[in-house]
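We give its fold:
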Amino acid sequence: VQLQASGGGLVQAGDSLRLSCAASGRTFDNYNIGWFRQAPGKVREFVAAVSRSGNSAVYADHLQGRFTISRDNAKNTVTLQMYSLKPDDTAVYYCAADDYSEYVSRTEPRYDFWGQGTLVTVSS
């Protein structure tokens, strides 16, 4: 599967932003899809993930309530809706696919396929 993340940009603190992950290639609903992010000078961290069916989602504890992940298997897309953005949310956001795990995983090594990333910059 090939993944393409989009929707990043420059926003102000408190704004909302929607990121999209478009997939092509093998059957999209074979994959759990996750979002990860990497801030400047920091390691990449888990953000959110959604199950193959879209019925189950998990979030990083410190982001739950501000971020919402969803998917549309008919359109081969996963969306990450971000609210009340903070400067600490500034990062390159990546979407990734996991075709192995039975359940949605927060663990980066579970994800074998990665998109190129989209930059989100939140100004104060």
